[in-house]
Amino acid sequence: MHFSSPTSSSPQNPISNPTNSLSTNNVLLLPSNTTSKMSFIIPNNNTNNNNNNSSQQQQQIISTPTSGLTTSINSNGINSISNVSLSSGQTTQQRLSFPQRTTSQSQQIPQEEFAKILRVLQENNMTESVEIFKKEYQSLFNKTTSSFSEPYFTALDGYISYVQEQPDTSRHEFSQLIYPLFVHMYLDLVEKDHAQEAQDFFKNYVQNTNLQATVFAAHKDDLFRIKSLVTKELIAQSEYVKSFRHNGRYWIKLCNASLELLDQFLIKQQKYPLLTKIVQAYFQLEINDGSARNAETQRLLSGGRLGEIKTEDNTNRMYYGLLRDHDLTRILQHKAILSSSTGADNEDGVGDDQPSTSKNRKKLKKDFFNQRQSKASLKVDPNAPQLTRIPIPELREHERMDLINTFQEDYSRMLKITPDNLPSCCYYTLLNGYLEINCLEVSEDSTLLAVGCKNSSIYVYSLNRRKLITMKLPSELERLDKSNEHIYEQMMTNDDSKDNTNQNNDSDILYNQRLLCGHTGPIYGLSMSREKWFLLSCSEDYTIRLWSLLTWSCLITFRGHTQPVFDVQFGPFGHYFASCSLDKTARLWCIEHAQTLRIYTDGCNDIETLCFHPNSNYIATSSSDRILKIWDLLESKEGQQMKPIRQMSGHKLNVCILKFSKDGRYLISAGYDRQIMIWDCSNGSLVTCLLGHSDAIFSMDLSRDGSILCTGSADFSIRIWNFGQLIKDKDDGKLDTLQRVTPSAKYELVTYRTKRTSTTLIHFTRRNLLLGFGVFIPPNDSTTKATKT
Questions:
Q1: Residue 37 forms part of a structural domain
Q2: In the chain, what percentage of residues exceed pLDDT 90?
Q3: Strands 68-73 and 79-84: what pairing?
Q4: Most Cβ neighbours (<10 Å): which of 218, 653, 766, 781?
Q5: pLDDT digits (tens, 9 = 90+) for 678-688
């Protein structure tokens, strides 16, 4: 494994290329008796009762600015013509239409004649005649459809036709039921030993291009899983079916007007008892206050395996503020004070003309934690947790002094990133590692890089020209003066034995490296402690190992997971760490104990990635059902199950990376669906969605001051976003919260591109220099996208 030389690029010359029941006035749970009424809903007398309950010719009608004839081609290759008359300036709109069921080749159906007659009847508003004609046509020519699956086709076709008749402003709300109805019907057919009819049912709707672009667009990954469930045994073993059918009801939010119409159609009219039965058994409907949401907002919040998140799940209080009384927080927040002794600019951009002297620096170190607090620091943050809420050890004296020294030097030279002063990017390309490297981790001070490989080995590299240090032998440690202020520095020595023996042979080596072996399976996750003393690794062998970066050996193996461990991460204060696994649990650990402190269970879904909150009181996880959850580390009352305090749904594919903002208020998520979604932790709502990448997003980081967001993708690009301006616009009410989609051009500052390197890791140094790390993809490989296990 080799490094290529780091390269710098600039914006002008970029690198090329997831229960308690709710109150009855907010939630609708359909009664189990099919003849009962939803009495608290006012019936709508204007509901159109003339719904199609049988199949019709598949068509796609697209609005155009002018009047005219619209021609479309159905799945059987038959042209159909619809007369569309629209006013000028009307926006393009796709109407749902149910597909035509296929027939055998031995019995051809005269569909052209049928379409012509049907069109004439529709043009003359002969609704009853249209319905009678369809029934007669089906009874005469469509005999190939099985009598058992016929009610399923008729019910779903009837509902799709009902959705099509709704106005454009509310049609998207009714469309939410189509996908779960389709899945439950398909599973019913398979469970009742009608596998072939179930496959015909599946193909009949999934192959419809109109449904693909609207209803099924957010569920492509799940449809791929459903297609393989062809027997009862496979359904009984499927984790997806357990999650979809037995992990809760499918949650749908509707406005009051839409809910009244749905009640009229399902309960009062009783035209399709099969639909009513499925909705009663597997659905739960919640009333949204006000009018119907726009289609774009609903599209963004859809994609969860069980629909949207119920409002009650996000009502518990979350203390997202920072621990202001902790030493580390004080050091990080007082960088202006730390840099004042060097005459550097402070946070407000005001320079200090006082010269730097050794006397001033010594006084700063001595009085920093005993200094008089300002009025701003004495102000109590109502959103910050108490320091004793979660036991967090204080920093030791030498740790505090070391942090003051390092931050004093680095913050005095930190770059202030603005749209006119963008960061430079130093990119490291890992060669000969395609399909062999699974994960990367860089130290907080940007001097060490750890690489986790598929062959169960871990490599640690030095990113500067200094050799990696190691601890002295025990005989040498005994002779050291333990009262010395610099005892920790004296315990270490530079490993330069190679240079003494083979100075000529390795004089051209720029990076020293170490190899850590112990796991028996591929490495899936790495995390390095803040002070660079420890390294955590998780693997397919169900274990987590804690490595010492001083003795370069494994200190302890943490066992508890019963399936491969996907991710592991140190807490912001280094005392706790968390892990997540295929065994559907996330676990909280402490480096001083070998047993698990907390276990967070996610029902029927494996947990794939996690992230610590900056105040170390919460962790965020993402699972295979694409639901983001925030868990409280505070111990629950005895006998109570651990439940997430926040759940957020919106991603269409699995999430790869999570990141909290520097102030802890916002959670940023990104993954395979190429969406960067920003969530407000105070209430679990979606702030906005950033679009711009054309492939999966694997890496993400925020600048040291939290104003710049950087994302790395498999599309061979790194994009920089003005996160600070986005939050400012949100606070000022200037952010478009109706559509929830922010054009990339509005907040995207610059794009750096690589030739054939998929960015796996992004990191901002203490001075706001951007570091990028990626694995080079050979040009002779047919696959041009990076893979992540």
A1: no
A2: 35
A3: antiparallel
A4: 218
A5: 999 999 999 99
